[in-house]
UniProtKB/TrEMBL annotation:
It holds the Pfam family Tn7_TnsA-like_N. CDD domains: TnsA_endonuclease-like. Residues 75-168 form the TnsA endonuclease N-terminal domain. It comes from Methylotenera oryzisoli. GO terms for molecular function: nucleic acid binding. The lineage of its organism: Bacteria, Pseudomonadati, Pseudomonadota, Betaproteobacteria, Nitrosomonadales. InterPro entries: Restrct_endonuc-II-like (IPR011335), TnsA_N (IPR014833), tRNA_endonuc-like_dom_sf (IPR011856). This is TnsA endonuclease N-terminal domain-containing protein.
């Protein structure tokens, strides 16, 4: 589901923001309802350039950034819309009255509820589906006031046949986020995928990997084998781990001076 771009379809007090493209459309033209500057932050927000859809993303917390990266790694993900507004104000007002919840207001006008992420995916048959995801810390997820507000999101999505999930963020931490950022650096370095090089790299990885080998040592060895620079070899490693060709543990630090930890199912020893 995507909101139409005609401002005349919405209440007058929302039209200025709709005209600026906020919350409507999809893909590269989409703009989030809330941007980083609109929300108080303790320095944990991020503006990230998207890989799947090349536009700036406004991510309001570290756990939102972590989840965004996890979504980008899924081959099925087609579009990610952050801070997606429920512009059906009449219905959210009704739901708030029904459940005894105070609706958001901006000045004297109702303000839309926003869902952290609306995610569009494509299955193996090429069919598109949309789902909603809310991202909260475990502490916030157990807060009764926050849970009642999440109830409005859930019920509205249920009425519109949009699957809604409160994401389990209990394993999200700074190590996981740092690892995802380390892997994703291939994109910032403008590495261009080469299936031939990646296949050779993966083959070499399976042959050479051993526990406790430092990443720097492995990259040095592999760059000589493949006759590539260490920088290029490292970006191939980053790309292969980002793409799940090599199943790296996200719970162990990933850095040049650290050993390479694989998930248990991928352990080659």
């Amino acid at each position: 589901m995507h909101w139409k771009t005609d401002p005349g379809l919405y209440p007058p007090y929302l039209r200025t923001r709709i005209q600026r493209g906020k919350g409507v459309g999809k893909g590269i033209t989409y703009k989030p309802w809330l941007k980083i500057r609109d929300v108080p932050s303790e320095g944990t927000s991020s503006s990230v350039s998207g890989i799947i859809v090349p536009r700036p993303y406004n991510l309001l917390s570290e756990i939102e950034t972590t989840y965004f990266y996890l979504l980008e790694r899924k081959p099925s993900t087609v579009d990610i819309q952050e801070q997606w507004p429920i512009l059906d104000i009449d219905r959210t007002l009704e739901l708030c009255a029904e459940y005894g919840i105070r609706h958001n207001f901006r000045n004297s006008n109702p303000e839309p509820f926003t869902i952290d992420f609306l995610v569009t995916s494509r299955n193996n048959q090429g069919e598109l589906s949309v789902r909603a995801a809310s991202i909260k810390t475990p502490v916030d997820a157990s807060n009764p006031d926050i849970r009642t507000r999440l109830l409005i999101e859930y019920v509205w999505c249920l009425e519109h046949e949009i699957p809604w999930t409160l994401v389990d963020t209990s394993k999200f931490n700074k190590t996981m986020l740092a690892n995802l950022r380390f892997m994703r650096t291939w994109y910032r370095h403008r590495y261009v995928s080469s299936p031939e090089n990646e296949a050779l790299f993966i083959k070499n990885f399976h042959l050479s990997y051993r526990k406790n080998i430092l990443l720097a040592e492995f990259i040095q060895q592999t760059s000589k084998t493949m006759r590539l620079s260490t920088d290029t070899t490292l970006d191939i490693f980053r790309y292969c781990t980002w793409s799940n060709f090599i199943d790296i543990s996200l719970q162990h630090p990933l850095a040049l001076d650290k050993p390479i930890f694989l998930n248990r199912a991928s352990n080659h020893d």
